[in-house]
Design goal:
The structure is a homodimer of 82-residue chains. With 82 residues, chain A is an all-alpha fold. Chain A has one domain: Up-down Bundle (Monooxygenase). Chain A is 82% helix and 0% strand. In chain A, helix 2 runs parallel beside helix 4. Chain A is elongated, with a radius of gyration of 14 Å. Chains A and B meet through helix 1, helix 2 and helix 3 of A and helix 1, helix 2 and helix 3 of B.
Chain lengths: 82, 82
Amino acid sequence: MDWMLLGLLAGAITSSGFIPQLVRGFRTKKLDDISLYMPLVLISGMTLWLLYGIMLHDISIMIANSVGVSCNLLLLTMKKIY
Amino acid sequence: MDWMLLGLLAGAITSSGFIPQLVRGFRTKKLDDISLYMPLVLISGMTLWLLYGIMLHDISIMIANSVGVSCNLLLLTMKKIY
């Protein structure tokens, strides 16, 4: 089995995990129950993961965490706007 | 620089990202704005990451995703209870 494929699949699933949250937030325009610190801390951590992926030349880690950072930046922006 | 240390730090930060959300949920007893699918999908994806970490013998990936899965299982349980 190709482990890179497993990593890419894992990355695709975790990245898409934030999408239902973004859709729900966009539809309800309510994100009161979401802690401000969750996206903030996740953005910091995922930026480090991204760096880790770059250092290890691991494409799965790079892609998953780039998408993760983008989703959480969007979540943070939505939280600020609504 | 030791990349394993970077991975461990990244893992510690992303894992702790869910803690403020758990604390907030526990205090307010309200998780209505949280999409049910976010923890569900993250648990599936992080389980695959865990497998990926085991296959690559990457301790940072293993620890981060074990804690991540636990936090999201707890979040899911809280969402079901409240």
